[in-house]
Design a protein that fits this description.
The structure holds two protein chains of two kinds.
Chain A: H1 3-22, H2 24-29, E1 33-45, E2 54-67, E3 71-81, E4 85-100, E5 104-119, E6 129-148, E7 151-170, E8 173-176, E9 179-182, E10 186-205
Antiparallel strand pairs in A: 1-2, 1-10, 2-3, 3-4, 4-5, 5-6, 6-7, 7-10, 8-9
Chain B: H1 2-23, E1 30-45, H2 47-53, E2 55-57, E3 65-71, E4 74-79, E5 83-88, E6 96-102, E7 109-112, E8 115-120, E9 123-128, E10 136-141, E11 155-156, E12 160-176, E13 188-191, E14 194-197, E15 220-221, E16 227-230, E17 233-238, E18 241-246, E19 254-260, E20 265-271, E21 274-279, E22 282-287, E23 295-301, E24 309-312, E25 315-320, E26 332-337, E27 345-351, E28 358-361, E29 364-368, E30 374-378, E31 389-393, E32 398-404, E33 407-412, E34 415-420, E35 428-434
Antiparallel strand pairs in B: 1-12, 2-6, 3-4, 3-15, 4-5, 5-6, 7-8, 8-9, 9-10, 11-12, 13-14, 16-17, 17-18, 18-19, 20-21, 21-22, 22-23, 24-25, 25-26, 26-27, 28-29, 29-30, 30-31, 32-33, 33-34, 34-35
The chains are: A mainly beta, B mainly beta.
């Protein structure tokens, strides 16, 4: 996670923590409520950036607790579709309304979690490919939401980063006792950080 | 009013922060590649260092065993590249380790009288074994073997003899463009002091070694041997060549000639006044009428495979096996009529599992069939060898055998096994010395 991203997420979290303190009155005033949202959108970026930008699908559902009027904390599960991989991130989510009224609000959101991985295309399963694993996922963004009855509709833009690690092994031969046998393999580990611009729309409750 | 100002500032701040972070960090992939690979650096020894390393030490457990040789109740078992285990086998039911003879770069041996000849990388070492507790080097023919280069055994006038490859592990971390997934090399790997590139394996002629001997003063070697003593001459496969060394003066051997043979020659077996050479493409029969200049009488060809050869009477027995080094897909025993040496004739083939070494003693044929164990056949009727299986021991991974005086001494991948075949209908295991991998 780069320093800039870390700073952004920490600021969002510290702000929402402060909001939690500030919101004690609000909590006292109103009950803690369940909230959820379902979102889908696009993740835009490129693999090597030698070709054109690639656009993938991103969807998730988040369920959690709403504290007062502005703060939401929850957990979610999603599905992201990159050029060569599908990932299933499981993450924690924090969302805070910066400014808003009952009908609409401008909010910030940060998500951090880990993702399972599944293959879409076999392009990286080249010679020596052994395994691949998903890893940390984090995202943050800014959005606008408005209420329609009990429903909440929001639009957002942000940045998402997904870590994927590839493992490769290359066989070697050892001359032992008159026979060529398998020796210690050489190994290659490729840690890939996939960075994408994220645009989403969500529909939620509360 | 003040609250609205604070909210506006907050919005502006976070909008700016997020837009900034998105805009100024490129939405593309970043890759970090960590390579962990091993390579081997050449390690050279001087002749003086190799000479100094020859020594007799206390016995140690069998490990990584190679060729075997038997003489006068003593078993000599080569430990690949390290030296020779000396075992008192006068009581085969209780073999007793006596000493270990350190000889760096040793892969086989042969004995005439009280003189043991062993290879030490490119040298032929001559040792006096009249007293097994005080074996000492008495002579050495330096750089007799020229074809170690096929095994990566280079000789440098400045650095000495390449005797080992030191394993070096390296780790490198690179930041790359994520489309730079490229194929690394496959690797060159070495163990026990011998190395080659994978693409050289097919032309590799393995280690110079020693073979069963003929003549009253010599002992008996296994069928996988590559050296043998016949009469007053020691013959050794040296890559594609056959080296001839005069050992009539036992402690004063003299290199006589080097005869071009075949790049894939593997084993030697002396019979009467002939030398049978097992190669991966067939069997050569050499005439030793002029001992210093063996000549090829005939060649019997077969499919490519590893193939030790033994001879008894008018028949040669050849096992063909497949494997990474041996190539091919054939695993069988071939019986060849050699009554006419100029025209060897295949008589019969028998399917096997993965036959390695073999031995024969008065019609009792022993075949080391790899993971399928040791098989003993009555070979008196060559047309019905497979019908006359005397015993089958599946519990060993047999590699080579010396049948002598009712005792079959078998080298397996996990130790030395000895079988009493005085009653061929009741062949029984009488002792075992296990290999302890160190």
């Amino acid at each position: 996670m780069s320093r800039l991203h870390l700073i952004v997420i920490l600021i969002i979290c510290s702000l929402t923590s402060r909001a939690q303190e500030l919101g004690v009155d609000s909590v006292k005033k109103s009950k803690i409520a369940y909230y959820f949202q379902v979102q889908s959108g696009a993740i835009i970026g490129c693999n090597s950036c030698r070709g054109s930008e690639e656009i993938g699908f991103s969807g998730a559902t988040i369920h959690g607790v709403k504290f007062g009027q502005k703060l939401r904390v929850g957990g979610g599960i999603g599905l992201d579709s990159y050029s060569y991989w599908n990932t299933v991130p499981v993450f924690g989510s924090i969302n805070y309304d910066l400014i808003g009224k009952k009908k609409s609000a401008l909010f910030i959101e940060a998500n951090v979690g880990d993702a399972l991985l599944s293959r879409r295309k076999p392009i990286y399963e080249e010679y020596g490919y052994k395994d691949s694993k998903g890893g940390m996922m984090y995202s943050y963004g800014l959005g606008y939401k408005f209420k329609y009855d009990q429903m909440r509709i929001s639009l957002g833009v942000g940045r998402k980063t997904q870590m994927i690690t590839y493992y490769y092994e290359y066989p070697t031969l050892v001359w032992r006792n008159g026979t060529m046998v398998a020796g210690d393999p050489s190994q290659k580990i490729v840690k890939t950080e996939i960075n994408r611009l994220m645009i989403w729309m969500a529909v939620g409750w509360k | 009013m003040e609250k609205q100002t604070n909210d506006a500032n907050r919005i502006l701040f976070f909008s700016f922060l997020i837009i900034f972070s998105i805009s100024f960090t490129h939405c593309s992939d970043k890759c970090e590649e960590t390579y962990s690979f091993v390579y081997y650096e050449p390690f050279y020894s001087t002749s003086a260092e190799l000479k100094a390393a020859v020594s007799l030490v206390d016995p140690k457990p069998l490990s990584d065993i190679g060729r075997i040789y038997f003489k006068d109740g003593i078993l000599f078992i080569n430990e690949t590249g390290k030296g020779i285990h000396i075992i008192d086998n006068r009581n085969p039911s209780n073999p007793t380790p006596l000493r270990f003879l350190n000889i760096p770069g040793n892969y086989d041996l042969s004995i005439r009288g009280n003189t043991l000849y062993a290879d030490s990388y490119v040298d032929l070492v001559v040792l006096d074994i009249s007293d097994l507790t005080k074996i000492k080097e008495v002579n050495r023919i330096e750089r007799l073997f020229n074809n170690y280069t096929t095994m990566g055994m280079l000789v440098s006038s400045e650095k000495g003899i390449l005797t080992d490859w030191k394993k070096v592990e390296t780790v490198s971390v690179n930041q790359t463009e994520c489309n730079a997934f490229y194929q690394p090399w496959g690797g060159l790997f070495i163990d026990s002091g011998i190395a080659m590139r994978a693409d050289m394996a097919s032309s590799f002629n393995a280690k110079t070694a020693f073979a069963p001997g003929g003549g009253s003063q010599t002992g008996i070697g296994g069928s996988m041997a590559r050296f043998t003593i016949q009469g007053d001459f020691l013959y050794g496969l040296d890559g594609a060549n056959l080296d001839v060394v005069d050992v009539s003066q036992q402690t004063q051997p003299a290199a006589k000639s080097e005869v071009a043979l075949s790049w894939d020659a593997e084993t030697l077996f002396p019979h009467k006044n002939n030398l049978f050479v097992g190669t991966r493409s067939g069997m050569y029969i050499l005439d030793l009428q002029t001992p210093t200049h063996p000549t090829i009488i005939s060649q019997y060809s077969h499919v490519r495979s590893c193939d030790p050869v033994i001879v008894e009477g008018d028949y040669a027995y050849v096992t063909l096996r497949s494997g990474s080094l041996c190539e091919g897909f054939t695993n069988q025993l071939e019986v060849i009529d050699i009554s006419n040496l100029k025209s060897p004739l295949l008589v019969k083939t028998y399917p096997m599992t993965n036959p390695h070494g073999l031995g024969i003693d008065q019609g009792t044929l022993f075949i080391c069939d790899g993971a399928d164990g040791l098989k003993a056949y009555d070979a008196s009727d060559i047309q019905k060898i497979s019908d006359n299986l005397l015993a089958h021991y599946k519990n060993i991974n047999a590699v080579d055998v010396i049948p002598f005086d009712q005792i079959a001494m078998v080298i397996g991948k996990d130790g030395l096994y000895q079988y009493d075949y005085s009653d061929i209908k009741n062949i029984k295991l009488i002792s075992q010395l296990p290999i302890i991998n160190q």
